[in-house]
Amino acid sequence: MSLVACLAGERHTDHPVCASPLIRAFAIPVNDHMPREVRQRLKPFAPRILGTNDGQDGERAEILRHALAEETFLQLAANWQASSGALGVGLSRRLWMQLRRRELHHRVERLLGKVRAGGGSGDRIALASAAAQLLALCARDAPDAGQTERCWSTAIGLLDQFCDVGASRRQVPGPMADRLTSLGARQVLPAAPSWIRNP
Q: Distance between alpha carbon 189 and the CA centroid of its chain, in Å?
């Protein structure tokens, strides 16, 4: 989010005005919990997040709601639960992990119910944050590297879908192209969408 603010010409912040509040609420926990090498996969999203504060978070929340209802997301949580009883994990740590996962799972379920019932933007933002935290917890304590990768890929896939909402109509803040050049980001972000390459 700090890179998004920089690209938009905003002051240094992790809450840039140009970014969708729902995307921000989802991306921050994902970014904070990802290992450094995996976090590099988030860089191409910085320019894509510009201009997403476009009033379309209802559509993004619907994407998240649909993902939470799919078996894939639920399977990640179920696999995590099964792994929390694995050998080599201390009893107190296992209990803490189970309680934390259960708490997050119940929070996601409550917020999902509110969003289904037409809840407001605060409920949608809270759901995005809780879902990201649950994915991060599942990734951190996954039983193997493959399961960890599935969790992070799910998070990145959701972020990709969120950024696609309204992309064809998005207005990019003015300083972005100059800042990409000055930061050398064209080399770091080779897959920038055409609306960024040709503002």
A: 18
Q: Which one has a higher pLDDT value, 84 or 26?
A: 26
Distance CA(25)–CA(27), nearest Å, equals 6
What span, in angstroms and rounded, lies between the C-alpha atoms of 175 and 172? 9
Mean per-residue pLDDT over the chain, rounded: 78
Q: What angle do CA 167, 169, 172 make, to 5 degrees?
A: 75
pTM beyond 0.70: yes
State how far the Cα of 174 lies from the Cα of 176, in Å rounded to an integer: 6
- φ/ψ of 13, rounded to 5, equals -160, 160
End-to-end CA distance of the chain: 21
Q: How far apart are CA 149 and CA 153, in angstroms?
A: 6
Which region among 96-105, 151-160, 173-182 has the lowest average model confidence (pLDDT)? 173-182
So where are the chain's domains?
Answer: 2-197
